[in-house]
Amino acid sequence: MFGSLFTGFGYWDFGSWLLFFILAGAMTTWLRSQGRQDYKKGTEQDQIYFSGNELPDSEEITVPASSSYWGFRKALKPYYDKLVAFHSGQTVTYVGWFLVTTALLMVLVIL
Asked: Is residue 67 domain-resident?
């Protein structure tokens, strides 16, 4: 019924992809239906858990972006230090590296 697209490296079968998405959608719908039935939107069930404390006004809650991934940044500090040293701030440099990386990836794909 559905044709296949043949490329130089393999083929894409439309029917198989369609069947995959239908099965994935059915499985996702089934998993979602297994959730709690007593949930009511707009009640205290929607409140953010704040370690058992009263939730302050939303204007008082501020989390700077630098705090969001501090563990990541600390664990990867040597890597980020090298990246910061490599950072020039000039767009031309980034475009050049983008082109070099793309060329290397293309060579790897072709090989």
From this structure: no
CB hemisphere CA count around 84 (13 angstroms): 7
Q: With helix as H, strand as E and coil as C, how does the chain read? A: CCCEEECCCCEEEHHHHHHHHHHHHHHHHHHHHCCCCCCCCCCHHHCCCCCCCCCCCCCCCCCCHHHHCHHHHHHCHHHHHHHHHHCCCCHHHHHHHHHHHHHHHHHHHHC
Q: What is the number of domains present in the chain?
A: 2
Asked whether the predicted pLDDT for residue 1 surpasses 70, the reply is no
pTM assigned to the model:
0.36
